[in-house]
Amino acid sequence: MDPAAAKLIGAGIASTALIGAGLGIGNIFGSYLSGALRNPSAAPGQFPNLLLGFALAEATGLFGLIVALIILFVF
Amino acid sequence: MLALFISSAQAAEKGIDPMSQFEIKRFVPLEIFGVDVSFTNSAMLMLTAVALTALLLVYGMRERALVPNRLQSVAEISYEFVANMVRENAGREGMQYFPFIFSLFIFILFLNMLGMVPYSFTVTSHIIVTFALAAMVFLFVIAVGFIKNGPGFLKLFVPSGVPIAMLPLITVLEVFSFFIRPISLSVRLFANMMAGHMMLKVFAYFVVGLGLLGGWAPLLFMVAFTGLEFLVAFLQAFVFTVLTCIYLNDALHMHH
Predict the structure, then answer these.
(1) Is residue A15 part of a domain?
(2) Which chain A residue lies closest to B19 (C-alpha atoms)?
């Protein structure tokens, strides 16, 4: 295989890590909403935790994106 | 639509390069004992962040009014915000390290926010900067742990209530997860800032490439995405600080 092509394919595969980030973020907001609708009075207290979970989940996917960028621009 | 599908070589020819915004420019070249200590755009933005923080806190609090004006309320709200965060995550004992955590939060927040100004430079999109911050937090937590608990701090790696057979495996995992902390802490901040700014740049090229006819669609997306980037800039400063508090809590309260 042409190394340049392999590089691009590798970068594409590495960025599939963002699938997990999407699932995670959706799961966090979905769970928060279903919890908040069951007990709306407890919802505001958990809002910082929601944002923390969102940021943590998003960062995990971005690790994969960084690998893709390293493949593209460093090698 | 063809403008979307140009190869990277063609993109470079046209001067399209989403990485160029992260370039470090030397303003005042300077070398001391063979070490490059030039005054760069990165250093300039760090100084700007420190100057703005000092302005906000010193100038904003100059009246010490009972009914605060706008600038004073911003200073008070940011103080209360971080103080509550430390109290909730690290307990009352954590408050003696409040100045460090507050400085960390404000510094990262200002750097992230200054990076959102068009044509400026995002200092936190360089992994060496975030790694230096994360390594500082890591060493700080280890120092606090050993000063507070002595050699007993090593019990952090040996959780209580684990079956003897599982203990070697769990200990190895705990040690590994402890030493991966500075890396995950720094890469999280760096990756978020870099990916966000790169995405904005790439979509900016779509706007230019699609011209008057189709350019408005990515432009609308960019407006929304810039809003999200402001949220991320705040959130990542928040997450960095909350995790610092949680790590500090591990060092302060060993009994679990």
Answers:
(1) yes
(2) A73
